[in-house]
Each structure stands twice: as C-alpha cells, then as structure tokens.
Amino acid sequence: MIHRAITFLFFFSVTLSFAQKKVITHDDYDLWKSMSDVKISKQGKLVVSTIKTSTKMGDGYVEIYNTISGKKFTFFNGYETSISHDEKYVVFKRKPAYQKTRKEKKKKLKEANRTKDALFIYDVKNNKIYDSILNVKKYKLPKEYSGWVVIEKYKSKKKDTLIKIKSKASKQNYALVYTLNTKKKDTIYQIKDFVLSNKGKQLYYTTSSKEQPKKDNVALPRDNGIYKYNLTSGISQTIDEGKYIYKKLATNDTGTELSFIAIKDSVNIEYLKYELYYFKDNQLKKIVDSSVKHLNDHWELSGQQTPFFSESGNRLYFYSRPMKQYRKDTTLLEEEIPQVDVWHWKDKMIQPEQKSKFKELNKKAFISYFDIERNAYVHLQDKDTDDLIFDKKKEQPYIFGATSSPYDVQRSWDITWKDFFVIDSKTGKKRLLLKNTALKPFLSPDYKYGLHFDINTGHWFSLDLKTLTKTNLTKEIPVAFYDEENDRPMLPRPYGFGGFDSKGYALVFDKYDIWKIALNGKEKPINITKNGRKNNVEYRTERLDSENKNNASYSNKKLVVTSFDKSTKASGVFVLEKDKLVEKIKASDFLISSFKKAKNADVFTYRKENFKTYPDLHVSKNDFTTVKKITQINPHQENFKWGTAELFSWKAYDGTLLEGIIYKPQDFDPSKKYPMITYFYEKRSDTYHKHHAPQPSASTVNAAYLVSNDYIMFVPDIVYKEGKPGPSAYNCIVSGVEAVEELGYVDSNNLAIQGQSWGGYQVAYLITVTNKFKTAMAGAPVSNMTSAYGGIRWQSGLSRAFQYEKTQSRIGKNLWEGFDLYIENSPLFGIPKIETPLLMMHNDKDGAVPYYQGIEMFMGMRRLQKPVWLLVYNDEAHNLRKVKNKKDLSIRMMQFFDHYLKDQPAPEWMNKGVPRIQKGKDFGYGLDKG
After folding, report:
1. CA-CA distance, 348 to 695, in Å (whole number)?
2. Cα separation of 208 and 119, whole Å?
3. How far is it, in rounded angstroms, from Cα 311 to Cα 313?
C-alpha cells in the first residue's frame, strides 16, 4: 500500500512538472539564439563566440572566455570579433538594439541617418571594456603583431569631437589609427581603402575626393593618391599622387613591399586602362603599363582582382585577360537595339548559365606573376585553363590546373568531368596529368606527388609530378574506398581524404577505418584504426589548420581521430599514440562536431549536442584531459515542454533492413493515441543526436515544435532502386509508418507526410499510390518529370537533365530511352487517384525546382476538384530566406495539420483563400469556428 502511494505521488509530481512547462508556440521563435563565428586565440588563451537571435528579430551578445583564468565576459549585441596577436585585447563591433533599429525603420529614416555600429575594445587582463568608438563602418587588426587597430568611421552628420576642422575632408568617411596601449588616435581624412601588413608595422592607404568630374558624368570620382603610414612613428609619406584611380592594394607579409593598380587618365568607365605598380625601398616601379608588352599578345591587365604576394615576397601575382573585342553599332539609339538571347546547341554554357554567371564571366581573368629577383614574368594560366589549385602563399614548384572545357556540353546531362594539368611554376609550362576525371588531386607536402581518387576504378593513385607516373596505392587492400551504399546512377565517390600526416603519408578512409599510405607506393598500406569495421564504428581525422588545409590535425604530437558509432550514433574522440587508439572523450549519447584548434597550442573547441541538448561550446586542453562546457546559449529551454528521440528499425516490403528516428512528446503516454507526421529526405538516421531548436520553417516541419504540441514525428531512411524513385519511397516510407503503427501509440486515422524538394516530390508521388495519409504537405515538389527533365535550375542556370540521368532523381536514362519511367514516377499522371488533401509551397524565385512544377500539380488537382492549396512566396528561393515568410509558413502549415489531424477549426485562408486585394492586409489566420 505504501509502495503504491509513493508510486502514485511520483507519477503525480512528474505529471505536474510537465504540466507546468510551456508548450512551444509560433510566438516563441524569437527567444532562441544560435552561435556563430567561434574564434580561438593563437596560443589558446581566449575563446570568443558570437551569439545571435536565430530569427534576427532580437538581440544577441558576444561572449569571451579565458581558458587560463576561467573568467567569462559577455557584451550586448557584439559581433565581428578579432583577438589581438598578443591576446591582450578583443575588438568587436556592437549593433544598435533591434528595437531601436526597428523604430527607426518604422519612422522611415534613411539608412544613412540610422544609428550606426560602435566599436568596443575589451581588456583581457582587467576583464572589462577598455574603450569604445561610435559610428564605425569597419576595422582591421594586424595578424602577426599587436598594438594598433585601424578604424574606418562614417562621416558624421552631428558634431564629432574627433573632427576639429571644417572642410570637404570632414564630409567623408575617415580612418583612425588607434594605439591600443595609449588610446592615442591619429586621423586619416577622405579614406578610400587601406591594407595592413601581416607582420611589418606598416599601413598603406588611398584617399579620394569623392567628387564627380564636371565634364564627364560617367567617369569615376578622382582619387588623391596612395600613401604609407608607419605605425610605430606615426609618420605618413606619399608614395604617388596624380593618377586618376588607385585601387586593389596588396602588401607582403612584412610590409616592405606594396602593389596596387592605377588608372592614369579620366576616361569613360567602359574603356579603363589599368597599370600595375610595385613599391619597395621608396622606389615605385611600373610592372605592367598600358602598352601591356609583358603580357600575352592581345591581352590586358585586369582591374577586377587584387594582386597578391607569395609568403617570401619574391612573387607578385596578378591577373590579366584577353582584350575584349566588341562590334557595337554606336549609331543606334537604345530603343533600336534588340534584346535577345541567342541559344546555340553547341554552346559550352547554355544561356541561363551564362546569365547566372554573367558577373563572374565578365570579370574572368588569369593568373601570372612577376618574379622580383629574376625580373621575369611567368604566365601560369592560359585562357584554356579554368582554375589553378595551389597555395598562394608558398612558392611551390608544381601547381595544378584544371579545365572542364572539353566536356562542358555534356554537363547538361552528365556529371562534371575535367582534365588536370601539372604546371611548372618557374616556367609556366603545363603537362597533361589526368584526363576525363571527376575529382581534383591533392598536392603532397613535399610537392613531389599528387594524390588522386579515380572513380572509374574506385582506387587511390599517386601521381609522380616529375615523371607523371601513376601508381595504384589501394589495389591490394581488400576493402572498398568508394561509397558501398551508393544508390545513384553514377560512379560512387570516395569516403574521403583525411589529410597528410606529419611524415607526409596520405590518410584515406574506407567505410569505417583510416589507412596510412606511402605516396611512393613502396610500403604496405596500414590500417591505423584497425577495429572500425569489426565494431561498426566510423573513424575520421580532422583538418583544422586553415593555413594548411590538407594536413591532418594533432594534439600533443598525436593524431586526432574522431569516432562515430554507426549503431548508436554516438561520437567520441581518440588520439593515435604508439600506433594504438587511446580514448580521450568517451562516446556517449551525443553528437560531437565543429572542431576548432588554436594555431600554436593544443587547445580545441567543439560542440556537443543531442535532441534535448543545444550544441553549446566545449573547450579542451592538455591533450583532451581537461574538458569544460563554456556556453549556455538557451537556458530558457528548460521552461518548455520538449521531447525525446529514439532509433527505430524495421524491414521494408522488399526485406531491406532500415533505420529511422521517432520523436515523442516529453510526457509521452504509451496508452494514448497520437497523431503522427512523417518527414523524410534521403537517409537521416545518422542525425539521431542532432538538436532541433524551435525556429520558423524555411520549408519543413520542426521536430521540437511538433513534440511540444503532442505530435509524434517519424523520420525514415530511404534507399533507392535505379529507375524507381517513387516506388522506392513507397517501399521504405509506408512500410516504416506501418511498423510504427504496430507499436500501438499512433492514431492510424490521423497520419500525415511532409517533405521539401526531393522529399516534396515523394510526398506528391505517395498520395497518388496510397490513401493511407489523412493529409500531406509538399514543398517545391517535382510533379512532372517529363517537363522537369527539360527544365532549368535557375539559380545556377544548369539544365536539370543531369539530375535524372546521373544524380538524385535516379532515373538513370534520358527522357526518350526511359520515357515510361518518367511517366510512372511523375505524380502529375496519378492525380485521378488522389484522395488526400495537399498543401504545397512553391516560390516564384525557386532556383532549384522550377516554379511551374508546383503550378502543374495545383492546376491538375484543381481541374479534377481535389482539395489543394498552393503557397507562393514572392521573390523567395527554394527554401525561404526571409524570416517574415518563414513565420507565415510555420503558422499556415501547422494550422493545416492541426485542422486535419486534431480536428481544429480551419483558418479562413483554407476555407476562403486570400483575395489579391487583401494580400498583405488580411493574412487569413483567423479560425472559422462556424
């Protein structure tokens, strides 16, 4: 009796605690914050993170954590952070309060008259703000030394105590050279642009009058000149004056060399002639003049890209391009010039892609360099080489060049193939390295080899860059290095490259383990993790050095290895010590990700999350022996009713074993019957431990919102058979839903499905072959594969045919060879069978799935008088970007589901629509209770 009483009391207290928690509503989205822009100081003393309101309709803060003292400092609305090289200061900007900016917008203040950002300087030693400056546009800190910050301020419409003169100069933006230890400020008026050297204490800058020429209104404003400022002495010297324009400043690391581009004369902006200058030891030298005699024949210097120096300062890289030849009839008026796009069947880029890439194509230029010691010009890139792959800081003997030109036409229906070249960086001579391949090679640290994965053979090869000898490095290893589960009609990609280790060995992945491979092919490959395949654990390395992105990362000279248990989805961290894995962070029911490392110390940060736990920031020191959580971004979550996530497995109708995730309410009662919404997109079970913060929807349902509002959410994995994307979805999704129904707590009369893009297509298909679902929501669905095959991805300008023949849409044949498959898999032709009410979203600026696909589905269902609604957000992309529209979709989507699955009254927009004349005035959210 006593035991029963205690049990009842416990059950009552738990129920009461759940009852006191708030259910998540659409009004709560602005409460949630997100973390971005995490920085670690070079010696690991400071960790700085920026926290923002997820919806951007609220304020945030910057948080500074001292890993030595354990002290923390937060500051309202801070962002754009920088840490001084000596770790004594943190500099950041502060946005005006959100409500202040909102009020100014409501008053229709022009942007120039609104409150501007301020700059703040935090003193690390004293754990407080050291100084602040108002009305700041931007700032820069040197990378490799400390003591100064250069600040550009907006011109002030009010009295500014920093400006003590009244002149034209005071009516323009100006710069402050700020000395950190004394707060001394030196002013540079009429600032146009500036650049700081990484190591030398030099500032180079240009100033401009900002005045338009009186005689030629299309010309650019005149610049005053270009100048050098010594940060130590505070002395400024003139480098050059008298040119019309000075732009694209670049300096070497030590600040002893400068390059810039200038325009000598005031001429129409369509016919600018650029010249490249080089400055050192108070001597100014013209590297490329308007005669362009040092360039390729009929080429000119490009003024669109910024030159740059190699780390030693011996190479000055710059860009040039073939001279543009126009045959323009200048006798015609603007209204007499036809506006027409001419499509040609042999165009390497179809017209929509040319339009999408117009700015890029118009600015396209090619890299050369001036060798300062040899006084020589080397042209690395000709017009037939699309890209160069090299470390721009290092004077490596070989670099890679790539071109897709021979295969550009077939890109419309095939994957992108390329030819790769090896280029001698001293002479510019290029030799063919790889032909008709899909993936770029990696350059070894000693510059002797390239490492390349050949998708045709499924093996890793080394490429001797001197002899061009190709050696298969993995042919003797009895495991696959390509994706064994690939179900797309294309050759599978590799599991990945883990970087080069400290001795120059390549680290490559199979499905589970990491292999160490000698590039000369003379040593037997070694499985350095050994037990991944046996234990169903995926081991991977991290590449955290931003300056050496192809190198694997170490802690205390030991290789860092992360683990992911494919059964439990738990993450852990190991180091490789004396050829053995040593566990540092034990795998638990969390996802660990987003690693960062201090440049010169073994200090790491990472984020740790699961469905219930926001991915707060953790810091690790001393070879991962010390780990501490240092942020708590959303503490208010504990006041809200949340839920749980669990893995679920079942067999599809064809016998395939599948996994999925079931999300349940926090106060789940197995004796109750819950409505269930099934969401899907490819395979999602590996995201089991991913956190889902409440946020307005860009296109899909939100797991946290659903469980808080007493829905079950099911997310099944899907595997596909070529030519059968629709039936494959049915095989996996519907079998999964039926398996969940057998658990006994799902209301089989109140089931729904929801998906976006590829998932939206499958929603539209499923309701043509089953009436199991009471309602459905599809975002950006393809409804007619025959018209979609010939459509355009408007954002990139690419033909959509490749998707069907080679990638996600998985038909595997062109429209004429597989016509029946295109018809069978198209929802449009199954509309007569539909009995499920459908809500769709398809936006008029969708750059991935053409907007007319949603219209075809809507008009077909409308013609046959099937219940259907279509939400079209204006000037919106494939997934919503504007918060106002995200909030609107969230409200409408849940009103739709609540009506059908919970018998809630239908809103006015569902019953009556929203007439055009009421658009933006009456949203139609009101519930029709009659």
Report:
1. 42
2. 24
3. 5
The structure tokens listed for 689 are 């431990």
The H or E element containing residue 715 is: strand 712-716
- Torsion angle of C-alpha atoms 387, 462, 458, 566, degrees rounded to 10: -90
pLDDT (0 to 100) of residue 269: 57
Lowest-confidence segment of 236-245, 275-284, 288-297, 828-837 by average pLDDT: 288-297
Q: Say if residues 624 and 723 touch (Cβ distance below 8 Å).
A: no
Cα–Cα dist 852/780, whole Å: 10
Tokens 């900002």, located at residue: 210
pLDDT at 414 over 90: yes
CB atoms closer than 10 angstroms to residue 586: 10
Q: How high is the pLDDT of residue 329?
A: 81
Residue 317 structure tokens: 């890289």
Task: Check: CB of residue 797 under 8 Å from CB of residue 355.
Answer: yes
Most distant CA pair in the chain: distance in Å? Answer: 104
Cα-based distances in Å from 357 to 146, 470, 795, 851: 41, 36, 9, 21
pLDDT by residue (tens digit) across 546-602?
A: 999 999 999 999 999 999 999 999 999 999 999 999 999 999 999 999 999 999 999
Residue bearing tokens 């990139």 = 796
- Please tell me the distance from the alpha carbon of residue 700 to that of residue 752, in angstroms, as a whole number: 13
Cα four-point dihedral sign 80, 84, 90, 94: negative
Q: Which two tokens stand for residue 626?
A: 């010390």
pLDDT tens digit sequence for 151-198:
999 987 655 555 554 555 567 889 999 999 999 999 999 999 999 999
Task: Give CA–CA dist 422/420, Å, rounded.
Answer: 7
Q: How far apart are the first and last CA of the chain?
A: 51
Alpha helices in 180-237 (DSSP H): none
Tokens in use for 466? 């001197």
- Can you read off the two tokens belonging to residue 205? 């800058």
Contact (CB, 8 A) for 343 and 398: no
Compute the radius of gyration of the chain from its Cα atoms. 31
C-alpha–C-alpha distance, residues 701 and 681, integer Å: 12
Beta bridge partners of 78: 94
* pLDDT at residue 172 in the model: 86
> How many residues does this entry show for the chain?
930
∠ CA 96-98-99, rounded to 5°:
110
> What tens digit of pLDDT does each residue of 502-553 get?
999 999 999 999 999 999 999 999 999 999 999 999 999 999 999 999 999 9
Amino acid at 207: T
Residue 734 is given by DSSP the state I
Element (H, E) at 399: strand 398-403
Alpha-carbon distance 803 to 811, whole Å?
8
Q: Is 557 left (phi over 0), alpha (psi -120 to 50) or beta?
A: left
pLDDT in tens, 885-899: 999 999 999 999 999
| 3-state per-residue secondary structure call for 456-512 | CCCEEEEEECCCCCEEECCCCCCCCCECCCCCCCCCCCECCEEEECCCCCEEEECCC
> What contacts 818, CB < 8 A, 6 or more positions away?
723, 811, 812
Distances (CA, A) of 612 to 320, 591, 714: 54, 12, 17
pLDDT tens per residue, range 243-269: 999 999 999 999 999 999 999 876 555
CA 112 to chain centre: 30
Residue 298's CB is within 10 A of a number of other CB atoms, namely 9
Range list of H helices, 187-292:
none
pTM confidence score: 0.93
| Overall average pLDDT of the 855-863 stretch | 98
Which residue in 785, 793, 794 sits closest to 814, CA to CA?
Answer: 785
| Bridge pairing between strands 506-509 and 78-83 | unpaired
Per-residue pLDDT at 131: 96
